[in-house]
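Following up on my earlier thread - several people asked me to post the actual chain instead of describing it. Fair enough. Here it is, all 238 residues.
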Amino acid sequence: MKIDIWSDYQCPFCYIGKTRLQNALAQFPHADEVTVNYKSFELDPSAERDIPLNIYESLAKKYGTTIEQAREMNVNVGNQAAQEGLDFQFDSMILTNSFDAHRLMQYAADQGKAEEMNEALFRAYFTESRHIGDHATLIDIAESVGLDRQQTTAVLESEQYGELVRRQEHLGSQLGITSVPFFVINDKYAVSGAQPTEMFSKALNDIWKEDHPLQMLGDSADGDMCADGSCVVPEEQK
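Reply from S.P.:
Thanks for posting it. Predicted structure:
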């Protein structure tokens, strides 16, 4: 089974949704046969790397609200995150452009570190209040998950993986993805938003059963069985 996830590292519901999917996979008996691929999606491709606003000022400016109203907007999100064991530090989050973080993610995937990097980038932004648009910060994060520091530096200082990020964003657009998180299972089934863990579990089990139907062995007409409240005893056993 293959699961492609489009998300952005500054999207709170992407972190929550990813965590809920992981919780569902932890309960799924065939989890070792599931491949998860992390696809790039930027909430604001035009964002500056260094933004002089905090999250509340940015939301207030975007939606025409007060700072206090913007603060209240995040209360529910923070509560949802806490229910999944996540610690969102809205007061100290550093807004930035996530393009280089996505490039780093794709490099990490090529090095077999997709899961570790994906989690590290979300945690760095939402919990540790790190600047995930800053190359020095990204290099430290890469080293923390086992990637070579010099190679990571070379990747970030070049344009490597930039085209791949753009291709993934374009594919998402072709699929009609306008908001994240967005999950595509086996290139056939779509799940939008940070759905409950129970919903992910049901989807995993239903799709697995559809792709792995029971195969009947032998002729069912020859086997002894009971049905409709009674059992027929073969003549030779009477």
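The beta strands are 2-7, 35-40, 182-185, 189-192, 226-227, 230-231. That should answer part of your original question.
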